[in-house]
């Protein structure tokens, strides 16, 4: 149901959220911790993270990416956006959520 706030109308829950969570990194690292549904945490490189995310997007349930990811010209562009700007990807259906965080190993 739309809500009016001033002269703007907000459509709550009109569009499902598929990825959330902006992140800001204050250090440089090529290592990420990856959490996938049904698996334990895993330390991987940035390249490996991109491969995994690309696989999730190429095998997306229903073969239709959500609008916020479908706007990219290529899957690689969508993956770059996810790695650069987001730390969570909610998979459509009952699959669950993929999360990744940049970490610094000492």
Sheet-strand content, in percent, reads 25-35%
Counting helices, strands and paired strands, the structural category is alpha+beta
Q: Would you identify the CATH architecture?
A: Alpha-Beta Complex
CATH level 1 name: Alpha Beta
Task: Please indicate the count of domains.
Answer: 1
Would you count the extended β strands for me?
A: 6
Query: Could you tell me how far the N terminus lies from the C terminus, measured between alpha carbons in angstroms?
Result: 50 Å
CA-based gyration radius = 16 Å
| Helix share, percent | 25-40%
Per the principal axes of the C-alpha atoms, what is the gross shape? globular
InterPro entries: CRR7 (IPR021954), CRR7-like_sf (IPR038150)
Pfam family, one: CRR7
Give a structural overview:
One of its GO terms (cellular component) is chloroplast stroma. Pfam families: CRR7 (PF12095). InterPro entries: CRR7, CRR7-like_sf. By secondary structure, this protein is an alpha+beta fold. The protein has one domain: Protein CHLORORESPIRATORY REDUCTION 7 (Eukaryotic RPB6 RNA polymerase subunit, Alpha-Beta Complex), CATH 3.90.940. The protein is 26% helix and 27% strand. The protein has helices at 46-58, 67-70, 75-85, and strands spanning 2-5, 8-11, 31-35, 42-45, 88-91, 96-103. A four-stranded antiparallel β-sheet has the order 4-3-6-5, covered by helices on one side. A two-stranded antiparallel sheet has the order 1-2. Strand 1 (2-5) and strand 2 form a beta hairpin. Helix 1 packs across helix 3. The termini are far apart. Residues 1-25 have low confidence and may be disordered.
